Amino acid sequence: MGEGRGFGKTILFGEHFVVYGLPAIASALGSTTTAKVEKADVQGYELIDNRPETPGYKERKKKEYEKLIENVINFMGVKEGIRITLGGKLVAASGVGASAACAASLARAINDEFQMNWDDDKINEAAYEGEKGPHGTPSGIDNTAAVFGGLLRFKKNLEGGPNTIEKMQIREPVEIVLADSGKTSSTKEVVDDVRKLKEEKPDEINPVFEEYKSLAEEARKALIEFDLQKVGQLMNKNHGLLQKITVSNSELDEMVGIARDNGALGAKLTGTGRGGLMQALTPGKELQKKVAKALEEKGYAVFRTKIGGN
Ligand code: MEV
After folding, report:
1. Fewer C-beta neighbours within 10 Å, C or N terminus of the chain?
2. Number of domains in the chain
């Protein structure tokens, strides 16, 4: 039996902007999706999906995952029937890179089962093909975080050449809180909407992209200098820009407000938006606990984790 895993991720800066070649910063999460692959007497593949989920996620994403799995299988040239068993602690939800973690773990497990000897770059290519199922036109940041882990700055090469992937180090891992709006969103739909908005209202939207460009440079510097106050402020600013491109919603804004009112240094949506997750920067166990509790009291499911340590 072949085995593999893929990291979940959170985007600290730059979701959506990254699709247009602007740099984004993501951190892998400690939770992973695991895949087991074994040869089986079936047509194509059989899927056993034991991942924990936000209610309704798997049903809503069924078609997209079918495409994801087919894309990975075809890209890797698997001709035999296989049984795939997904598991691990990463909750299948919008915003944590669940589909990318699945694609990465599947590619690794196929590589293991069929002794293909692919290196991480090739595995990442397979995971990217998989991501095209749910995403349509993914930037590649989610699969890159899922395959390589760690904290990374990612810039898509719009000409089709290799993307820029810069591994970043921070002084020590930092506590964050992720909170789930409970709503599953479609990355493809939201990315398509942003594209339409950009085409229809360039005078309004292009300046937002320009603002993000300088924010991205400041964010990189603040992280390297470990200036967490500044990182938090920039996260708040980034959330404002995401609101302007219409990818936030009332639950996300409410969660961001609760986190900030309870002392988070900064808070923003993470990932696709219009549902999915919010992330708050809460250095130290005490602050993390306080913010998590306040969100839980309002009925939101929370995950406490760290960035920069996986
Ligand atoms: C989704 O996790 C991140 C987006 O920027 C899409 C992408 O980068 O492909 C919304």
Report:
1. N
2. 2
